[in-house]
Amino acid sequence: MTSSSNPMTMTPACAIDRDVLNENTVGRMDDLGLSVFAKLCGANRGAFVLDPPDGGTYGCTTFPESFSADAGLPYAVPDSANLTQSFASGNVPASATVDIVDRYIGAVYQSSSGVNANPYACDVNGLATLKNCQSPSEKSRSLRADGDIVNAVTLAGAFVYQPWATGGKILSMDEVKAFYRSRDFREMASLGVNTVQIPVPCDAFYESGEVVATISSLLYKADKAGLSAIIVLVAPDIEKEGIAEEIVVEHVKSAASFASESSNVIALQLPSSSPSLFGAVRSVNDKLSVLVPTDRGRLNIFSLPPDSHLFAALDVGAITSVADIASSDSEGDRMKMFYHESVTCIDRSPIEWLECYHDTPVYVTSGFDLAIDDCVRAGEAGFKDYGQCDRFGETVSSGWWRRHRLSLASRQLFTYSRGLGCSFSAWKLYGDDAADANSEASINIPEKLLCLRDVAAAGLVPQLSIVSNSSALGAACLNGPRPDFAMEDEIYTPTLVPHDCGKGWWNATAGQCDYWVPPPEEETPIDYRTLVKGAAAGAFVALVLAWVVKKLSRNDEGYLALP
Q1: CA separation for the pair 242, 253 (Å, rounded)
Q2: Model confidence over 208-222: pLDDT tens digits?
Q3: Which residues, 6+ apart, have CB-to-CB distance to 481 below 8 Å?
Q4: Considering only CA atoms, which of 207, 147, 157, 129 is closest in space to residue 418?
Q5: What is the DSSP string of 387-399?
Q6: Where are the alpha helices (DSSP H) in 345-451?
Q7: Rounded distance, CA 218 to CA 198, Å?
Q8: For 302-313, what is each residue's pLDDT tens digit?
Q9: 127-136, pLDDT tens digit by residue?
């Protein structure tokens, strides 16, 4: 995403991210039509126009001739289907294909109303970015002094009770010190972590004591390993606890004073978006970076006062409704993973939208892990059993789950690094310092999917050090996830080899090959992959696209929201 220094003449636009999709990578796309056109062809009832107008109205079935001319072609590409097939057969160069796709995406965005109020208006499955953005406050695009993206891990269970992380135990401060040793911080740094995120009770700094001393001890260990820190304030429920907001304000002031005096604390995250809490911090320090919590559901109403050191802390948790977590058989488990992979890349859009239209860079504070259900909450009050936790053993040492967990992590890391950075949900579990945490078999309980040490040892996350390389990470969103959820590993009967339908797909119901565009009488053999998936996969992809529509609109109508 780029910023404009001349806001009077430039307005935000949506364009292909050339670091991700370009003439060198477009040939690696499994299906250009599914990745781009299936997403946008229905926008604005399928119509778009040019600016300035040229007397025509266009859509996926009718491209303006200027698209081809601007791409340097001596002939016109009439529509999206022709472009997809012509590129696959080698008749349209890769560079021209990307140029036409870029113009199409820009025109659809430009023709859409209310894009400034729609966090997902520029979503093209993670392939597009907003440009010509403005920053009136000239806000920093990094929380770190070195300008790097934040690669953080959360010290879960240390000061704020997390029963899944500590085995249901509330830790003493001596146990916290033993939990997070100097060796842990060195191991974090060796994995590419540059920051630790420390959740603490909001009142922890109001009076000096054992908790503050322990926080200082962990900060010292982190600093020795070259790690900075973000302190996340967790407030009690004011209504239930009967605590006046004025008291919380005083607690936040104390935390701001502590953060200001700590050499490696780079930001303080507030417990809520209350303006009085931000004012409390600024009464102590006018330059301390402050993170204000929000989530996807509040993006349209989220706004911050002008301040060059004020940022959003976004919760991207993926287990907020029954649709996110429920499954009661093995194939359903895999379909659910496929769904989570499919929708991850769309979060790029709201992250860039907040920065572009609200001058608010985004830090992903929670939700970055490999869990696709709420099984770590099993046994807790309010947990609802839909059968989602009954088959975890099937995932251990499964090649299918290994591939798709790595795919999910890669998509998350690319998407969340479009902002200020992100924090993985936890480092390790309390009491789990086994020397054999070095294989995929070590991911033997759901809780370890939230622990960076364990998933890294199992090879389920890419190197964190490559987050600044958009080209390397962007390949994760270049294609949708593999639709091989129909049981093809060693535990189940392999999927039958599909019929060869060339540029079409096998319709199992009709017992014939179907096509988007009927083939000519004599097909010319090509070496490219078929343009459309098998019928079974296609049906599920269509279902996922319907789910994505719900995700984009943030409308979970028909699904029960989890407490």
Answers
A1: 20
A2: 899 999 999 999 999
A3: 338, 341, 342, 404, 407
A4: 129
A5: STTTTGGGGTT-H
A6: 348-358, 399-416
A7: 9
A8: 888 888 999 999
A9: 999 999 977 7
Which residues make beta-bridge pairs with 363?
313, 421
Asked if 462 contacts 410 with a C-beta cutoff of 8 angstroms, the reply is: yes
Q: Which residues contact 91 (CB under 8 A, 6 or more apart)?
A: none
Of 356, 350, 312, 348, residue with least CA distance to 3:
356
Cα four-point dihedral sign 93, 99, 100, 101: positive
Report the alpha-carbon distance of residue 38 to residue 342 in Å, rounded.
Answer: 14
Tokens of 272: 């809520």
Quick check: helix, strand or coil at residue 242?
A: coil
In which residue ranges of the chain is pLDDT below 70?
A: 1-9, 137, 237-242, 434-441, 466-471, 486-512, 514-563
CB atoms within 10 A of CB 557: 6
Partners of 131 in the beta sheet?
Answer: 13
Describe the chain by its helix, strand, coil percentages, rounded to 5.
40, 15, 45
pTM of the model: 0.84
Asked if 270 and 233 count as a contact pair (C-beta separation under 8 A), the reply is: yes
Which residues on neighbouring strands pair with residue 362, listed in sequence order? Answer: 312
Tokens for 84? 């997809």
Q: Which helix (H) or strand (E) element contains residue 200?
A: strand 195-201
Task: For residues 272 and 294, give the distance between their C-alpha atoms in angstroms, rounded to a whole number.
Answer: 8
What is the identity of the amino acid at 51? D
Q: Phi, psi (5° rounding) for residue 343?
A: -95, -5
Number of Cβ within 10 Å of residue 246's Cβ equals 10
Q: Enter the tokens of residue 220.
A: 């010292």
Nearest CA to 121 out of 135, 106, 139 is that of 106
Give the number of residues written for the chain.
Answer: 563
Answer for the pair 472, 419: CB distance below 8 angstroms, yes or no: no
Percent of the chain with pLDDT over 90: 67
Q: Determine the angle formed by the axes of helices 348-358 and 399-416, rounding to 10 degrees.
A: 0
Q: Which amino acid is present at 154?
A: T
